[in-house]
Amino acid sequence: MEEYRSSGPLQPGDRAPNVVLDAITHEGKIAIDDFRGRKPVLVGLFRGLQCPFCRRQIATMAQLKAALNEKGVESLTVVNTPIERARLYFRYHPLPNLLAAADPERVSHRAFGLPNPEFTEDEDDWPHKISMQTIMSMRVELPDELPEPMNPMAASEYLQQADGYEMTEDDNRMAATAMAQLVGEFLIDRDGVVRWSFTEAAGGGSNMFRAPTPEEVMSAASQVVH
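Above: the chain sequence. Below: its structure as tokens.
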């Protein structure tokens, strides 16, 4: 497959690329074009399952699936995790009716224009470079799960321990190549055009480790269905 690259996160009005990936939750492949001409689709592009923030965002997407389906919108979750590792995880942590695909090479993230920032000692050039000082100055707020706002490293460690998540060789490999990979959600209409998006790349870094609210997603879904 010829790889498509975008110079920045796709915006409303942009045509979504056709990315073909290994399906996690069933055998075979799944492609963005599978939905074209049939129904709108919410595509969530996440880091690997080693990321505790992404695991929570994936669970939130899965919880919205029934409500989205009622509006005629499908949802597809993509993770930067090798296929067998991903299948093993979801076998022990099932999310009913989840439609998911594996993309350990991050082809979809590049195609949708989500950068993989480089960590630096003291240089910031958002969203391509980010210094450790800037990362450590950020605060993640999850009132129901964290005892207080924490820097991303501390928050990640706390959540990993709370989840009892054990890193595997695959997890470590994914983290080493794309620890800072930016994520996002894109709502694509039945004609294959992006109609709404939420990405970590937007907002000059203020969206890092955040996700759209269910109300934002459902409002966007209401607008895209005619």
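The CA atoms of residues 40 and 146 lie 35 Å apart.
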